[in-house]
Amino acid sequence: MGTLPRLSLIQACAVALKSTIFKAELSIADMDRGYYATHALTIAQHPSETDERMMLRLVAFARHASETLEFGRGISDEEDPSLWQRSLTEEIELWIDLGLPDEKRIKRAAQRANEAWIYAYGGSAADIWFGKNQSEIRRFDNLHVVSVSPEIMSGLAGLIERTMQLQCTIQDGEMWLSSDKGSLQVVVKEMG
């Protein structure tokens, strides 16, 4: 009888870690775009993804919501964006990334999609990242970069529950996200 191979501690932890599943009923009233819908969402939170980042994915979904917008594999697959919208012919209409992507990923998003968005976060690290990448970012008319403050990120984490009922209202460029746990004005600022 053969012996089983020993796993290193890192391998054992990687095998043991699985995504945490969250359910969200997200009701959106976007008066700016005339979009009103309720989406039943299942969100898989990767073991390395923070609560703040996962909630930012929900915010990005709400700001760009459509019947065909979907979550990408994001963290677990570097080829996928955090969210995307594809046409029936698989053309990428919208690519949304979160965080501080490298120059190669910025270029890939802008070249592959009709419209690309980056939701940068991390406080001063986001400002430094933008300063380093602004010439590449400005090359593309279809690329939009917004920043989300650490205070907003923290507030988003305060709304998290395994099963969420969220209401999102967008009017005159202002976004409010609320649940039984509270309400938060979600401010994103155009970088540049």
From TrEMBL:
The protein's matches in SMART domains, at most eight in alphabetical order, are given as: YaeQ
Concerning Pfam families, the annotation shows: YaeQ
Q: What name does UniProt use for this protein?
A: YaeQ family protein
